[in-house]
Each structure stands twice: as C-alpha cells, then as structure tokens.
Write a structure and sequence with these properties.
With about 325 residues, the chain is α+β, with helices and mostly antiparallel strands. It has 9 helices and 14 strands. It binds 7N-methyl-8-hydroguanosine-5'-diphosphate (M7G).
C-alpha cells in the first residue's frame, strides 16, 4: 500500500531536472556534470547482470542489488517513490483497474498507472568498491564505544588508510557536478559551504526533504575534528542553511532536523538537513548528532569532541569493527 506523501509540491522545472538523475549513466567521477539531452534516457542498466540482492525492505519499498555493468562491480538502488498529491487527478483518470476481489462494500484492485507516474528512483554506483557493497549489505550491527584515545589509535589510522573516495564532494565544491542543483553557495574559504539536495531525495515532495551542506574547508574529517575554532563555520551553516531552505521550500526551521553523522560514510565535514517527521536513514540517536547540540557542546568545552567517548553502530563485516576487536575494545 502506498502512502500519500505529497503536501507541498516542488516546481515542475525542478521536477524535470531531477527526474533526469536516475537515468543518467554515472560518468567518470571527475566529470559528473549533467547534460540535458535525450541520450540521458539510454538504459545503462540494460547490460547489468545481477549477482545478489544485498538488502531490501518491503515496507520502505527499496532494494539494493549487487551485480556488474560490463566488467565493473555495480550497486543499484531501486526505490519506489511516494504518490504525489498533484498527480492524483491524472492517476485516477489515466489508470487501468483490474478487479482482485469484491465483498460487500469492499473491493480491491490492481491499478496500472501511466508509466510516467510509476517511476522508480534508481541510483547506480559504478564502479562500486567493496566498501560500497558492504555499506548496502544487510548485516547485524553492534554499538561501539570510542574514547578520544580510541579515535586516535584505532579509528583515525583506519580512516586514513581506507575511506570512500571524496571525488564526488570535490566535484560539487568545484561545480563540476550537480551545479544546477545548488540551493545555497557560500564561497568563503573559512565559513563557506554548498547546500544541495542529497542523492537520496527525489525532490518531488517536501515531505521527505533531504539536503546536505558540504563545507568548503577540506581538512575537517568529522565531528571528532571539531573544536571551538569551527564555531563560526557551524553557526554559518546552521543559520544560512535554515534560511535558504525557508526561502526555497517554504519550510521553517521548526520543521527541520539538522545533524551530523558519527561515523559518517564520507570523511569530509557535511551536515544533513531533513524534514522533521521524515524517518530518514541514519537519523537515529546512535548515529545522528544535532548541530544545535554540537554548537552548544563546543561553546561549553572547546575540545569537547576530542575528549568525549562517542557511541556508534558498526556492522560485523566493517573493517573498523575488526580493528576495535583486535585492539581488545569489544
Ligand atoms: P554520510 O553521513 O557520510 O553517510 O552522509 P551516509 O551515506 O551513510 O548517510 C553522506 C551523504 O551524502 C548521504 O546522505 C548521501 O546520500 C549523500 N551523497 C552521497 N553521494 C555519493 C552523493 C552525491 O554524489 N551527490 C549528492 N548530492 N549527495 C550524495
């Protein structure tokens, strides 16, 4: 059963721009800029050979599939999108109905919607690394307790050795990719950032709004690197980010959940802006740190995140989990 999730729609120009995203082959990382012509409708997945379903959720209507495109490992994420209120009239008018059962006042149908109202948001990661495959694989996870010393002796060496590539982040900051999607751009090298829709959001309705603010400073890996000297940066992201979202999406700060992940998947500081009430992946208390709390903690103690013990979940097959085990910390 689909849920009606459209309350306030995004403009059709923004819609058009977004619907192209899923059909576009992931070009090489250095040049991910969108074109805007018909060739974007080529089916990059026609040569996809599936090897396994990494995970799926019938409730969230999402499936993560592993396979190959040509000789490259690929992860394909298929996600059914919410039904939009602005498409209902067309859906009722233009669909075919097949009766499944009728009983007294109850009847159930299979509805075949017009193809353009029945799209699946599709994200392709290719070539995918082993880390990507693990990231999407269903796995049992365990809560890890990381002291400041654990961070320096276990986590930091690990993330310095093996982290996911940040090329997509640099492409955004240098406007080589997704430049037309930017919602706010602050070019200041110290406190500046780029705010844009997250890859996970199809931008068709604000009910599941999801943006990320990527800071311009390149040497802040995560929450752990923050100290009071970063307060002007964090306050700028918080303030200007909220203003930009109010201006563009008419959503006030009181409707936003603004947070950082620890551990993040990508070690270049970024802040998540999601709509309050939308159960975004990774917004649970074991991983999300509200930006407002982070700011206050640094105001109280300039070195708060260098010394605090932080908790976070790790999957059993995560290399970092192994390192914690080897160090006798689990
Ligand atoms: P994270 O906390 O490092 O990890 O957040 P997570 O993916 O486990 O949440 C990184 C955020 O960046 C996520 O919300 C991703 O969906 C988003 N993201 C990742 N990539 C590769 C892209 C991209 O190419 N473009 C955009 N706009 N967002 C991305």
């Amino acid at each position: 059963m689909a849920t009606v999730a459209a309350k306030r729609e995004i403009s059709s120009a923004e819609n058009d721009e977004l619907s192209r995203e899923a059909k576009r082959p992931k070009a090489d990382d250095k040049n991910g800029e969108e074109g805007g012509n018909e060739s974007e409708w080529e089916n990059v997945l026609s040569t996809f050979t599936m090897s396994s379903v990494l995970s799926d959720s019938a409730r969230e209507k999402i499936m993560f599939v592993h396979g190959k495109i040509a000789d490259h490992d690929a992860v394909v994420v298929l996600e059914k999108t919410p039904i939009r209120e602005d498409s209902l009239a067309e859906l009722f008018r233009g669909s075919k109905l097949r009766l499944e059962l009728r009983n007294d006042i109850y009847s159930s149908y299979r509805l075949q919607a017009p193809p353009h109202l029945n799209e699946i948001k599709t994200t392709v990661v290719c070539p995918a690394t082993e880390k990507h495959v693990k990231k999407y694989k269903r796995q049992e996870s365990f809560l890890v307790e990381e002291t400041g010393e654990d961070y320096r002796s276990i986590t930091l060496p690990y993330i310095q050795e093996q982290s996911l590539s940040l090329q997509w982040v640099y492409n955004i900051l240098e406007k080589k990719a997704e430049a037309d999607k930017i919602v706010h751009d602050d070019a200041d090298p110290e406190v500046g950032f780029v705010l844009l829709p997250d890859l996970k959001w199809d931008q068709k309705q604000v009910d599941d709004l999801y943006l990320i603010a990527i800071v311009r400073q390149k040497d802040i890996k995560s929450l752990r690197d923050l100290s009071s000297e970063h307060l002007p940066l964090l306050q700028n992201v918080f303030q200007r980010g909220k203003e930009a979202i109010l201006h563009r999406y008419n959503l006030p700060a009181s409707k936003l959940r603004v947070y950082l992940h620890y551990q993040p998947s990508y070690y270049h500081l970024h802040v998540h802006f999601t709509k309050l009430g939308y159960d975004a992946p990774g917004c649970g208390v074991e991983r999300a740190h509200l930006l407002s709390d982070v700011i206050q903690n640094l105001q109280t103690d300039p070195q708060f995140y260098k010394s605090r013990t932080l908790h976070f979940p790790l999957r059993a097959d995560d290399g970092l989990f192994r390192r914690f085990k080897e160090a006798g910390r689990l």
